[in-house]
Amino acid sequence: MDIHVITVIGSGVMGRGIAYAAAAAGFEVRLHDKQESQLAHALETLKADMDTGIARGKLTPSDKEQALHRIKTTTELEEAARQADFVIEAIPEILDLKLQLFKALDSICPGHTILATNTSTMSPTEVGAATKRSGQTIAMHFFNPVPKMKLVEIIRGLDTTDATYAITRSVAEQMGKVTVEVNEFPGFITSRINCLVGNEAMRMLQEGVASASDIDKAVKLGLNHPMGPLELADLVGLDARLRNMQYLHEKLGETYRPAPILEKYVAAGRLGRKSGKGFYEYDS
């Protein structure tokens, strides 16, 4: 099956990054969000990100113009999804929200449409069970920032067909991504490892082992990570990281109990870059 129209649900950091990658790859993109203001902000950010791509030699001005022309925005879910060949959901990691959305998408989308959830921890089997097309439901785990990060984890649900997997892999590769196939298990590959590293760094910070900057510096220079674990948590969003840890703790046990400092920071509204303060402070 040829994929022409990709619908992206959610215009936050991940959603607009996926829209960028899809439009730059030549797909027609329908970007959906409930708030018009969010969509306007997403478009402005996309333009700035594409200017950065031009500066890095990854895009030409003509590429930017054509990619932006391929992106259509809408606050109406039916308008976004009724002609979709492939849907990528990029809403918060809250299972009930995903189940409600996939049930609605199942009733709107054409019969051939594949439904993908962009999730770092959650079960495509459980999400697919909210639809009548569990064989056409799959998980894709993109990484932030999407235009720069090469990896996409592709996770099959219990009923996901080989054809659905093959098409999903092809879509990711057309976006310039490298894929790995993951058998469904909570946290997949990278999130299980990443959450453990980040949680241990948070415990070290609350125990006074070292400052946040020195913990991150040690991991970057000593273990050759491109970002420190606390910097990365701020980028992802501490509320999102806490939801991931809570889910993994529920599914996999005490090893994944969230560090108390993470719960305290989220309760205080210190959510990382998006709030201006997390483990570090940021200019508005």
UniProtKB/TrEMBL annotation:
Domain called 3-hydroxyacyl-CoA dehydrogenase NAD binding: residue spans: 6-184
Species of provenance: Fodinisporobacter ferrooxydans
InterPro entries: 3-OHacyl-CoA_DH, 3-OHacyl-CoA_DH_NAD-bd, 3HC_DH_C, 6-PGluconate_DH-like_C_sf, 6PGD_dom2, NAD(P)-bd_dom_sf
Keyword presence, Protein transport: no
Name of the protein in its database record: 3-hydroxyacyl-CoA dehydrogenase
Gene3D superfamilies: N-(1-d-carboxylethyl)-l-norvaline Dehydrogenase, domain 2, NAD(P)-binding Rossmann-like Domain
Pathway assigned in UniProt: Lipid metabolism; butanoate metabolism
Chain ranges of the 3-hydroxyacyl-CoA dehydrogenase C-terminal domain: 187-282
Taxonomic lineage: Bacteria, Bacillati, Bacillota, Bacilli, Bacillales
Pfam families reported in the protein's UniProt record: 3HCDH, 3HCDH_N
Keywords (A to Z) from UniProt: Oxidoreductase
Source domain of life: Bacteria
Keyword Nuclease: no
Family to which the UniProt record says this protein belongs: Belongs to the 3-hydroxyacyl-CoA dehydrogenase family.
